[in-house]
Design goal:
about 300 residues; alpha/beta; Protocatechuate 3,4-Dioxygenase, subunit A; 2 domains; five-stranded mixed sheet; about 25% helix; binds benzoic acid; binds fe (iii) ion
Amino acid sequence: MTCDHRCVPRGQSVTEHEGPIQPGAISAAAEASFANCDAERLRILMQSLVRHLHAFVRDVELTEAEWRAGIDVLVATGQITDGQRDEFILWSDALGLSMLVDALAHPLPTGATESTVLGPFWADRSPLRDYGEPIFDSAAGEPTWVQGHVRDLDGRPIGGAELDVWQNDATLLYGVQDPEAPEAHLRGRFRTRKDGSYAFLGVRPVPYPIPDDGPVGAMLGATGRHPWRPAHLHMIVSALGYETLTTHFFDAESAYLESDAVFAVKPSLLRRFVRRRADDPERPPSVTGDWWSVENDIVLAFNAAES
Ligand code: BEZ
Ligand code: FE
């Protein structure tokens, strides 16, 4: 069945209609064009998209030049996007959409560690490393002992949980951004011990700018926003029977906590990095000078579908 999405009032033919078509009729016709879409969810998405897009155009009284500039931005976004870089996701991040979709998709129970954005620098198949191992061969940053426990909402340890971790170096760069960096630089996967504990040697993360040499960067510059993210370390934590958690923890003393370019800071994810000296008896074996330590406990929510 074809859809009746006419712009002229019902009962009149296109040729009978007199006078200019009203803008409201155009919006109604565009929305109605999806009325017979058999896939219900797709119909809901497309009709709502049309309603909101048309409302936006009315709200700001969009000019033709602005409409053209918007199309040009979309074209430029497509042109800069490739297998390594997704400028569309960066738009979603920089407009707060990624965080909103994540918040709606993961309404976690109180007490569970909160989620945040994945970001573009995660890499597949990071090496599985042993408890306490470094995630680098050599790094520019200050060595940091990261440790914690993975537990459930009742406080029971989760042994055998996997933590996939990645972070940037004092150069500001993630391993995947740095052609000089060895494979798997500053990333790795760890399994928790029976008591839920994990530990590894990373470096103290530093604030860095999101990629700002493309359309998103141009938008940030034109609107007086900065591209910086506060210092953080990424983790994906997974275990059978539990919701997989994509999160970061943030250096509680970092710059930009109040103005993260991608709106990903949640107060519950701030952690204190503790200054440790070279003569500290707990100094990890591969560290020679001063170092830092940070505790990051994780609480996973039960996955009703799996348990
Ligand atoms: C990140 O944390 O790696 C990141 C997240 C969103 C956009 C850019 C970078
Ligand atoms: Fe990051």
